[in-house]
Amino acid sequence: MRREHVRERIPLAYRLITGPDDRSFCERISAALQEGYVLHGGPAVTFNGANVICAQAVILPQAIATSEAAVATAIEAAELEFDGESIA
């Protein structure tokens, strides 16, 4: 199985959707929300001299839960290894 095919089936945990501030951009955000993504932060906008360009980050909630669990596990392991003395 080729690597490109694997990437296509696994949804990205984080996406940054960009484009002109128009109906198409809003439809892309709406489609991502229907796929289970949630907004991450507020939108960013800029003006390129002709159009307003928007950017909106979206994330999958389960990706956050997975990363938070990994961090909690790492912290717990580090606390178990810590002997109470500093590394000065």
Task: Explain what you see.
By secondary structure, this protein is α+β, with helices and mostly antiparallel strands. It is built from three helices and three strands, in the order αβαββα. The protein has helices at 3-9, 23-34, 61-81; strands at residues 14-20, 38-47, 52-59. A three-stranded antiparallel β-sheet has the order 1-3-2. Strand 2 (38-47) and strand 3 (52-59) form a beta hairpin. The longest helix has 21 residues, at 61-81. The protein is elongated. The model has no long low-confidence stretch (mean pLDDT 84).
Concise description?
Helices cover 45% and strands 28% of the residues. With 88 residues, it is an alpha+beta fold.
List the helices and strands and how they pair.
Layout: H1 3-9, E1 14-20, H2 23-34, E2 38-47, E3 52-59, H3 61-81
Antiparallel strand pairs: 1-3, 2-3
| Number of DSSP-assigned strands | 3
- The residue ranges in which pLDDT falls below 50 over 5 or more consecutive positions are none
The biggest sheet amounts to: 3 strands, antiparallel
End-to-end distance: 50 Å
Descriptors:
88 residues; alpha+beta; 3-stranded antiparallel β-sheet; 3 helices; 3 strands
